Amino acid sequence: MRVVSTVSLERVKFVALLTVVMSIPLLLTLWKPEIGDIEGPPSFLFYWLSLSVLMVPVLLVVGLVTTITIVKSSNQAKRALLCWNLAGILVAIAAEMVFVAYIYRPLP
Q1: Residue 48: which of 90, 99, 88 has the closest Cα?
Q2: pTM to 2 decimals?
Q3: Residue 108 forms part of a structural domain
Q4: Which of 19, 21, 84, 86 is most buried when burial is the number of CB atoms within 10 A of its CB?
Q5: How many Å apart are CA 98 and CA 100, to the nearest integer?
Q6: CA angle 90, 96, 99 (to 5 degrees)
């Protein structure tokens, strides 16, 4: 049984840009670590961070599956999609690494 998947430029761009946007709060924990601390009323950024913690790994897996689909494709025109997809994957990996470093930071 063969699975036929269609990868379009709009879908790849959307997933890559959504991945980058959802990675922003995870990357901001490096610059402003008190985002994740719950010591007062939660802000919009805290809710965005909470959603990003769940969404970025899912979007990373979607990006990896899309990359495999693009690489297996024999169509050379679809290879141009690889740049958009890899940009989203690299930002997501960087954001996850920053957030894991934030979680395991030494406490004073």
Answers
A1: 99
A2: 0.79
A3: no
A4: 19
A5: 6
A6: 140
Condensed to tens digits (0 to 9), the pLDDT of residues 36-79 reads: 555 555 677 778 888 999 999 999 999 999 888 888 876 766 76
Residue 38 lies in a domain: yes
DSSP label of 34: G
According to DSSP, residue 22 is labeled H
Write out the residue range of the structural domain in which residue 15 sits.
9-103
Please indicate, yes or no, if residue 68 is contained in any of the structural domains.
yes
Instruction: Count how many domains the chain has.
Output: 1
Q: How far apart are CA 22 and CA 73, in angstroms?
A: 28
- DSSP state string for 35-82: GS--SSS--HHHHHHHHHHHHHHHHHHHHHHHHHHHHH---GGGGGHH
Which residues, in sequence order, are CB contacts of 55 under 8 Å at separation 6+? 22
Read off the amino acid at residue 6.
T
Helices 44-72, 9-31: inter-axial angle, 10-degree rounding: 140
Domain assignment present for 82 = yes
